[in-house]
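Check out a protein:
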Amino acid sequence: MLETPDNTAAVNSLRSGVMRLSRRLKHQRVDESLSPTEMSVLGTLARCGSATPGELARKEHVQPPSMTRIVALLEAKGLVRLDPHPEDRRQKVVTQTERAEAMLEESRRKRNVWLAELVGQLDEDEWATLRAAAPVLEKLAHL
């Protein structure tokens, strides 16, 4: 990407808009007792399936001891269970529970309703632009 004043301004606007929207979405949680990090771990388990604490730490960009504490908190809340690793007895596999699945589904529903209300305030051209940008934003989120 060429560094031009227009590109720099566009990147700044994108960063600012995404961060503000993200913060507002985080306030639409169903369970206020969970930290954003705990919710993120549950989301990762929902997207990627069961994982060891080490794998979760890498995916969440946290240190393994921190992930061990997060997993222990989630287990105490009945949102994950620890099963023996099928090949390595020294490790455990973290799996989300049905309770976590239901909570995540309700959280997604609540956030979608909130976001749909905001989108309803856009005109048709703005909504078309946002629909076209959604796959690109998704790609950026996973690079």
About this structure: The first strand starts at residue 80 and ends at 84.
